[in-house]
Write a structure and sequence with these properties.
mainly beta; four-stranded antiparallel sheet; about 40% strand
C-alpha cells in the first residue's frame, strides 16, 4: 500500500503532516516506512532485510531508524510489499531491497531449488539497473511481485507471475522489469496479494491476476492474465485513486469510495463461523464480485483510499452545503 502525498492532488492538506511528510504502511507484513523531506525512516520487522539497514541490522526495530545509505538522495515515493521495499528518487531512479524470491526486487535473481540454501535478499537499497535511461514516477509492491510506471506511462512488472493453482505447472517469473503491453498511458498502479490494478490518464481502471473472491471486479472469480478494463454503471466520474489489499480492492470515483473482493467470510482465516474482515465497508462480511459504493455521509468527499491485508482506510474532506 502507498500513500504518496507528493501528488499535487494532496498538496492542500500536507500541512497536517510533519514537514510535508508522506506516510507509507505495509500492505502485508509488519513493518512501516516514514518519509520526511525526502529522508527515509523505517521500523518494524526486518527478518528479510526489508528495512534496508544492512546485514547487521536488528531483526526487529522498535523505533523509527533512518536509512543511512540513502541520505545523499531524496526519496519521493516508497512502497512496501510483504517482505520487500521499493523507493523512487526525485531523479526517477528505482531502488529495491528485502526478500528477493520470485524476482520481486527486479535485479535478475531467479528462484530455484538451490535458492533454498542461499539468500536472495538485499539488505540495503540497490539500484534496479534495468530502468537506466527511464524516469520512473510511480511504484507499488505486492506479496511476491512489484510494479512501476515510467514518465511515458508504461507499466513494468517483476516478480511472481499469475498461474493457476490447479496442477503443478509453474510459469517463469519475471526477475527483471518487464513491460505490460496493450495498456493505455498509465498514471497509478497498485499491487495486491496476487493481483494488480492500474489507472490510466483517462481515469479508466484495468485489473489482472488472481481473481480469488472476485478481487478484480469483473463479476466472476476467473483468473485473468492480461489487463481487463473494469466498467460499472456506478462509475459516474473517472477513477482517481486505487488501492489493492490482500484479496480486495478499493477505488475513488467522483469523491465516492467503491470496494469489492474478499469481504472476510470466505477463505483466508475464516473458521468456526468467525469472520476475518468486513473490510469492504458494506455492513457485512460477504464477497462482492463487482464494484459497490460504500455508503457514506453525502457531505464528505474521498481524497485517498488505502487497503491493508483485511482492513481499509480513507482520507476525506467535508464539503460545505
Amino acid at each position: 500500500m502507498v500513500i504518496d502525498l507528493t501528488n499535487d492532488r494532496y498538496l492542500y492538506h500536507r500541512d497536517n503532516y510533519v514537514n510535508s511528510a508522506a506516510i507509507i504502511l505495509a500492505t502485508q507484513g509488519i513493518y512501516d516506512i516514514f518519509l520526511q523531506d525526502g529522508v527515509l525512516f523505517v521500523w518494524g520487522n526486518n527478518s528479510s532485510g526489508q528495512l534496508g539497514l544492512g546485514k547487521k541490522g536488528k531483526k526487529n526495530v522498535e523505533k523509527p531508524a533512518k536509512v543511512d545509505c540513502l541520505v545523499d538522495v531524496k526519496v519521493k515515493m516508497a512502497a512496501l510489499g510483504s517482505e520487500h521495499s521499493i523507493a523512487i528518487t526525485d531523479e526517477g531512479e528505482v531502488l529495491s531491497w528485502g526478500a528477493g524470491g520470485a524476482g520481486r526486487l527486479g535485479h535478475g535473481h531467479k528462484s530455484s531449488f538451490f535458492s533454498l540454501f542461499s539468500s536472495s535478499s538485499e539488505y540495503t537499497p540497490r539500484l534496479i539497473k534495468n530502468f537506466d535511461g527511464l524516469k520512473v514516477k510511480c511504484t507499488a509492491a505486492g506479496l511476491l511481485h512489484s510494479a512501476c510506471i515510467d514518465e511515458r506511462g508504461s507499466v513494468f512488472l517483476f516478480g511472481e507471475r499469475t498461474a493457476s493453482k490447479m496442477g503443478f505447472t509453474r510459469v517463469n517469473d519475471a526477475s527483471v522489469p518487464s513491460p505490460i503491453p496493450d495498456l493505455p498511458f498509465s498514471e497509478m498502479v497498485s499491487c495486491g496479494g496476487y493481483h494488480t490494478c492500474v489507472i490510466t490518464n483517462q481515469g479508466e481502471l484495468y485489473t489482472w491476476g488472481s481473481n480469488e473472491n472476485g478481487c478484480l471486479g469483473l463479476g466472476d472469480t476467473d483468473m485473468v492474465q492480461t489487463p481487463q478494463n473494469v466498467t460499472s454503471s456506478l462509475f459516474k466520474f473517472p477513477i482517481s485513486h486505487v488501492s489493492c489489499g490482500w484479496k480486495h480492492t478499493a477505488v475513488i470515483s467522483g469523491g465516492r469510495v467503491f470496494t469489492w473482493g474478499w469481504g472476510g467470510s470466505n477463505g483466508t482465516f475464516f473458521e468456526d463461523g468467525h469472520s476475518s474482515g468486513g473490510q469492504l465497508g458494506h455492513g457485512n462480511d460477504v464477497d462482492y464480485f463487482k464494484p459497490t459504493m460504500v455508503n457514506l455521509d453525502a457531505n464528505v468527499k474521498a481524497l485517498c483510499v488505502s487497503c491493508g491485508f483485511n482492513h481499509t482506510g480513507a482520507i476525506f474532506e467535508y464539503i460545505e452545503t
